[in-house]
Amino acid sequence: MFDAIVLDAYHEGRIPSHYCEASFAALARRRLNPRGLFLANVFLSHDLDDTADRLAETLQSTWPRVRLLDQRGSSCRNAIVLAGAGDELDRRVLMSSP
Q: What is the DSSP-derived secondary structure letter of residue 28?
């Protein structure tokens, strides 16, 4: 059992589709401690790129608590999708632009 799992996998600039499926989310959850945290680093090329939103929606089929951290309005940026015990983390304020 793990305290955290970090997804930071890319192929040709995108997260491989099998990592965005509900079956992968369920597998990751089974490998986490009850208070564990799943984090995904998602590259977004522009504001119309909904990859992080779709991944967050998929994760909600497995975890009741999912949070998307994103700084909209910038192109070529990274968003973080958290699932699991993320609500127990202190909410932080962005100190500088990414």
A: H
Q: What angle do CA 34, 39, 44 make, to 5 degrees?
A: 155
How, if at all, do strands 2-7 and 32-44 pair?
parallel
- pTM, entire model: 0.83
Q: In sequence order, what are the residues at sequence separation of 6 or more whose Cβ sits closer than 8 angstroms to the Cβ of residue 16?
A: 9, 10
d(CA 82, CA 77): 17
Across the range 25-46, mean pLDDT stands at 94
Assign 75 a pLDDT band (cuts: 50, 70, 90).
confident
For 80, counting Cβ atoms within 10 Å of its Cβ (0-12 exposed, 13-18 middle, 19+ buried), the class is middle
